[in-house]
Amino acid sequence: MQPTAKTGNNQRNRITENAIGSERHAPADGGKLIVLTAPLTEAIDHAGYFIQMALASLPQWMEFVLDMKYPKWHEVERDEDGSARYMPAGVRVLEKSLLREFGSEDVVACFPDDLDRFIGPNTRVVAVSTHNPLGVTFAAGVYASILGSSKMPLNSIYARAMFSRIKLSPYRKNFRVVVGGSGGWQITQTNTFDELGIDCVVEGRSESLDTLALFHKAIAGETLPREITVGHPTTRDAILFPDRRTTFGVVEMTTGCGRRCNFCAPDLNPQIDLPKARIMEAVRANVRHGNKQVSLATEDMFIWGQVHTDTPFFFPNREALVDLYSEIVNTPGIEQHVLSHCTIAPFVVDPELIRQLSDVLLPKSPIHLPRLSTHPQKKALCPLIGLETGSVRMAKQIMPSKGMPFSIDDWPSIVLEGLRVANQNNWFPMMTLMVGNPGETDQDVRETLDLVYEIERRGLFAFLVPSIFTPLHDTRMEHQTGVTHTRQLRPLQWQLIMGCWKMNLRPGQYSWWGPMAWRVGSLFLWLYRLRKLNGPNFTWPLMMFAGLAPEKIIQRMGKAYVGKPLVTKSRRELIASLRPNYLQYLRGDNGDLPEGFSRPALGPAGPRKIDFEPATLSSEIVP
Ligand code: B12
Ligand code: SF4
Question: CA 271, CA 304: separation in Å to the nearest integer?
């Protein structure tokens, strides 16, 4: 059966193959030459980031939970011509790129439910941008698989419905279907070209001239290659910015990262920080088209302003960052700002930067955490940060530069000190953990549990989001295999997953009924479905998670690991262990510098340049 896809103006349409057929009307103008779209679940602009992350993780049977919490999540806004008022940034950049060679009358970006209004006899290309079409990426498949009988998260169900609609178009023979975006590889890897009716998957950026050449080929009716890799711009000026509204007001801030974690795909892109003037233009374009929110897309916000300067990129450029974010949140019309990704070491490197950014960013944060935040309006900042593992052995193997400028040997100290600074300033990050890495031993998991328990013991807080290792295409770990199914998870790995979720729910469980509802709900789910699905190793961790048996007793029975307190380094000790030539980059106003070493508050070079020469590939990481 086809999924339920619900969009627009309070109408809820059950998309069945018959319904698709009966709804089709030929567009009066013969349709657009190039039609761009993205799955509904990636295009919606509701309720902040959380809803999309949930759609990427929950199985279909849990859709009712989202429907209850966000009854209007399917509703989308359109411009007068029926095109999408907002689209993911990837679609918008592709649109901008195409408009360099095609007229605006030939290109349209629309929601999947509106495809039939724009696909007609004139259409030659339907281009889909997708983030996560099949849900086979980390923290997506795993939760659908833990919670449901199918491995398919809702996002994948909706993406498939969209592909099915395109495939069944009466004009299908006239056009080519081209897919791109950060999730295109999922189609190549699962070889679902024919099933989904896709002609070509493009790996790489739409700015590339090869992408434009591909569209010309498609329009000429030529056969397209199944897969094509196109280049990534290597200079700041070659990156295009959308001048229309993007989902969540996403505007690119940087590409690449530079820390070189072995499992990471975005790090394979050149390390570029984009010019402030162009970021601001894109922010203002969003506002002009009705957006009130903005979010700068980045792998690590803290490298911005420090790429290819005289200072290594892992010493943040405080003045540049504060200036950029101030201007963004103070742009007339911007009411909300949400952070995307960053790393934890900069919190230890420059706590004063975090304090200043908090002053700037908290007033416009839509996130409220009443039990955690000390802000007068209980506002909080929740960027995504990779914690990944508490095991130094494993960290050295998969992400040796993650803690730079500090040594990865100090990873647990970096995490704890960074989180301390973060929490003090009302930053409560979402921290991802990878479970089931290739070669992960029980001892590695114990060390991660130690770190997680230590976070709790010190009264610190982060939303800990464990996911199962997923080998991403082209990464340095592409060909490695870890755990592939939840039934393979060992008891300790389950304890880690469920322990993290137990911690995450703490701030929400202060009502008298919260814990009770949780216990009963978890027990019911376990009896009904999860017992069979996840196997016997899941039982005790679930009991512990649900609080059905006291944790101490479960531990005494030997069914769970107790955890041991960690002795870690303070900020001062971490700084004392830095390579001597790094000390020059630290800021004196943060304190903790070694005896006899003093720096002016502005650092070695005073405020650094904000806009500078074009950046190219990074080679700045120091082994
Ligand atoms: C912002 C963001 C989000 C936001 C908003 C997403 C949105 N719908 O707008 C939120 C927080 C909701 C989110 C959620 C998730 N995200 Co996300 N997200 C990002 C982030 C930081 C930026 C994306 C972006 O807009 N970039 C800017 C645009 C311009 O780049 P782009 O989309 O890649 O588009 C370029 C090319 O891909 C290409 N292109 C794009 N489309 C097309 C189409 C065609 C036809 C062609 C030819 C080319 C082309 O051209 C564009 C530029 O020219 C990226 C990391 C990154 N730096 O890319 C992660 C990233 C894309 N997310 C990722 C993941 C895993 C997720 C989640 C699954 C996480 C989770 N478990 O919840 C969910 C999935 C959500 C969903 N609905 O399915 C991974 C994807 C990994 C993968 N697919 O293999 C990334 C790469 C992060 C990472 N470090 O690994 N995400
Ligand atoms: S720090 Fe994050 S973005 Fe950077 S390389 Fe590592 S995983 Fe990738």
Answer: 10
Q: How many residues does the chain have?
A: 623
Q: Which ligand is nearest to the CA of 179?
A: 1
**For the chain, percent of residues with pLDDT exceeding 90:** 61
Instruction: Dump pLDDT digits (tens) for 227-248.
Output: 999 999 999 999 999 999 999 9
Q: In whole numbers, what is the pLDDT of the chain averaged over residues?
A: 84
The residue that leads in pLDDT, 614 or 586, is 586
Q: What are 64's two structure tokens? A: 């009712």
Residue nearest to atom 10 of ligand 1 (CA): 49
When comparing pLDDT for 133 and 502, which is higher?
A: 133
For residues 590 and 322, give the distance between their C-alpha atoms in angstroms, rounded to a whole number: 16
- Reported pTM: 0.87
Give the whole-angstrom CA distance, residue 204 versus residue 184: 9
b/e per residue 237-270 (b: at least 16 CB within 10 A): eebbbbbbbbbbbbbbbbbbbbbbbebbbbbebb
Residue 40: which of 125, 144, 139, 163 has the closest Cα? Answer: 163
Contact criterion met (CB below 8 Å) for 225 and 63: no
Binding site membership of 432 for ligand 1 (Cβ less than 6 Å)? no
pLDDT at position 93 over 60: yes
- Indicate whether residue 429 lines ligand 2 (CB < 6 A): no
259 lines ligand 2 (CB under 6 A): yes
Separation of alpha carbons 37 and 16, rounded Å = 20
Q: Is the pLDDT of residue 597 over 70?
A: yes
pLDDT surpasses 60 at 515: no
What does the alpha-carbon distance between residue 227 and residue 411 come to, in Å, rounded to a whole number? 39
The strand order across the sheet containing 293-297 reads: 250-252, 293-297, 336-337
| pLDDT exceeds 50 at position 465 | yes
CA pair distance 309, 607, nearest whole angstrom: 12
Residues 404, 361 contacting (CB under 8 angstroms)? no
Q: Who's near 562: CB < 8 A, 6+ residues apart?
A: 555
| pLDDT score, position 528 | 56
C-alpha dist (Å) from residue 164 to 32, 178, 295: 19, 14, 31
Ligand 1 geometric centre to CA of 620 (Å) = 25
Residue 227, beta-bridge partner list: 201
Token look-up 């960013």 returns 361
Q: How many Å lie between the centroid of ligand 1 and the Cα of residue 181?
A: 7
Please write the tens of the pLDDT for every residue from 358-368.
Answer: 999 999 999 99
Kind plus residue range of the DSSP H or E element containing 134: none
Q: Tell me the residue type at 493.
A: Q
434: helix, strand or coil: strand
H-run or E-run covering 448: helix 442-457
* Burial of 193 per CB tally in 10 Å (0-12, 13-18, 19+): middle
DSSP code string of 3-34: PEEE-STT-EEE--HHHHHHH----TT---SE
Q: Does residue 300 sit in helix, strand or coil?
A: coil
User: Which residues make beta-bridge pairs with 430?
Assistant: 384, 463
